[in-house]
Every structure is written in structure tokens, then in C-alpha cells.
């Protein structure tokens, strides 16, 4: 893996593309636009079906460590009716959060006031102790609310943390299927609703490629000529913490997105198991 992860080898992309007149380009662009509109309409239909999914009432009492003390799942709504949770990969023994989950989190702060205007609170949840979370959050310069589920069942119940016993069995329950997974923490997004009576309902969770929805950078990369450039790499292995581009430095050399100095078995990005990215 190159230590200059923000750069790629020069490519003569011009050789791969036919150079045409403006008229020919417009014709080709309109043909693609038709496909884009079809995809947009399909996406709208999927969103409508997503909102019509049945709900599950949360009956277990989940508690989290927050800067102000212990809070419940209902408290995380912060007076709103809709809660969006990023299951942030940050294990209790890790020294810093996962680079790929950090990549997702980099897109959150600017959206917070807009989400609030639409009755949505966004919170990140990790198993790391709150002190580690607070230190890493300060380093990254983030403002969103981030709480610790350390010692609780929340991560296990939503299939984003796995025990040593589960991992030893070869496959874990992730992304609605039993599959191999490279580490004890996994990425995901979950949505909850709280009604006027205070009851909380689980309405949606997504994993694997589903978490791409939080990565606006990908939407831009999908538009530029080189694209994501992940075909010849281990998926998101190019991603660094935003203060670490230009270096292969990690506090946890045996954790997700490890640099090339780590062993091959530990260099796999935990956000990128083969089945999860499908």
C-alpha cells in the first residue's frame, strides 16, 4: 500500500476515451441521462418501500456513557422523534477509531442542522470507553454526539460487534447473512423512531455497501474520470484519518486499514469483507 494514499500513479486516460465533437458528446450524454433518470426513479421507489417496512418495538433497556453521564436510547433522540445511529468501529482495546468509519463521520457535522430541521438526531455509538472516544473526537475536530456502549448489549444486538467465540466459529451474523468477517467490530447504520408515548421502535438498519449513503465523497468520486480507483485495491484501504494522508501511520497496527508494515492477515480493512461489499 502506498504511503501517499492521497495520490495515484499518473494515467493517460485520454487513450481510453474516444475524442468527439460537442454534438456527439451531447448525444452520448443524453443516452446516459436516460439511464441516470431510471436509476433515480428506482431509488425513489426503494426509499418509499424502505419507509413502509414494519417496525420492531425496543423492549430492552439500553444504556450509554455520554459526556453528561448515563443516558438511555430514548435520551439519544434529544427531543426529536427520529434517531440515526452510526455504528462506529472503535473497539474497547483500540487506540483510535476505524479510518473508514472516520471517513463516514467526516461527512456528518455539516448535515446536523439540516437533519435537526427535519426532526432527525444523529449519534455515533462505539464500544470504546468514553474517554477514548472523547480524545479521538477532539483530535478529529468533530461536533456530533458520540456515546459509548461499553459493557452493554447494543452492538451485539444490532450485529456490529462479535465475540471471540463467534469469530472462532468462522462465520458471524452480519448484513443479514452468516459470513466470514475479519474482526470483532463492523460498520452499520440504524434508524429508530420514538412516538408521543415515549416508546422506541427500530425501523431500519443497513450494513456493508449500505453505509455508502453516508459517504458524500464517493458521490463526487463517482463523477470524476478516475472514479473511486478501488478495483485494484482492497476496497477502502486507501482511506486515512483526515489528519494522516501522506503517511501510513496508525495507532493500532493490527486493526482495520493497517499500513503495509502490518502482516497480510491484519492489513485487511474490516469495513471490506468480500461479502459485505456486495
Would you kindly provide a written description of the structure presented here, covering whatever features stand out?
The protein has 278 residues and is an alpha+beta fold. Among the domains are: 21-52; 56-214, Glutaredoxin (3-Layer(aba) Sandwich), CATH 3.40.30.10. Helices cover 25% and strands 17% of the residues. The protein is built from 7 helices and 10 strands. It has helices at residues 22-51, 99-105, 112-117, 130-140, 154-157, 164-168, 216-221, and strands at 56-57, 63-66, 69-72, 82-87, 120-126, 145-148, 172-174, 177-179, 188-194, 200-207. A 6-stranded mixed sheet has the order 1-10-9-4-5-6. Mean pLDDT is 88; it is low at 1-6, 258-268 and 273-278.
How would you concisely characterize the structure shown here?
This protein has 278 residues and is an alpha+beta fold. The protein is 25% helix and 17% strand.
Supply the key terms:
Glutaredoxin, 6-stranded mixed beta sheet, disordered N terminus, two-stranded antiparallel sheet, 7 helices, globular, disordered C terminus, single chain, 278 residues, 25% helix, alpha+beta, 10 strands
The CATH superfamily of the domain at 56-214 is identified as: Glutaredoxin
What share of the residues lie within helices?
A: 10-25%
CATH class of the domain at 56-214: Alpha Beta
Determine the mean pLDDT.
Answer: 88
Strand and helix layout:
Layout: H1 22-51, E1 56-57, E2 63-66, E3 69-72, E4 82-87, H2 99-105, H3 112-117, E5 120-126, H4 130-140, E6 145-148, H5 154-157, H6 164-168, E7 172-174, E8 177-179, E9 188-194, E10 200-207, H7 216-221
